[in-house]
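step: validate -> pass
step: tokenize input -> pass
step: predict -> running
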Amino acid sequence: MEEESQLPKWEGKTSAELKGPAAEEVWPLLADFCNIHKWFQSLETSYHVEGVPGQPGLVRYCGHRDHDDDEDDQTSDTIKFSAKEKLLMIDPVRRCLSYEILDNNWGLKSYVATMQVLDLDGNNDQSRRGCKIEWSFVCDPIEGWRFGDYVSLLDSCLLSMAKKMEHDAFPSTTS
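step: predict -> pass
step: emit ->
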């Protein structure tokens, strides 16, 4: 265990652009901390566990089940990912929030992340209208994972989330 704690922390960042909606339009979707599953396709559920919605200290549960081919047999489902996450900071002016993972079944330790919605440069130009979401993190190395593989996973998840937001929440901007 001592050897594990002496490894350097992983620090990374990924981002995804949304074409069409401005940052102030996308921010409320991300700020709705307990409903991240609406946009994060690999999550089936997220819900309020404790705390005041929209305030630091709010805790959410996020989870995803690994479904077997037999959709009628719910007992054969196993939990693929589950986590309790605590909102550390939320700033509607800067359109960012930070959270930490309190408990999970994935081996994430000392995980703190920040998500921020930024206007694209040149947002006054209608041809460049849009925003980007940045997701940065710091955590202990994850046993069995390489840093680059984990960043690639986050990149893929964020890109998928941005596309879902564009398509579902702002359909007129994607046509």
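step: describe -> Strands lie at 10-19, 45-50, 59-66, 78-91, 96-104, 112-119, 130-139.
step: cleanup -> pass
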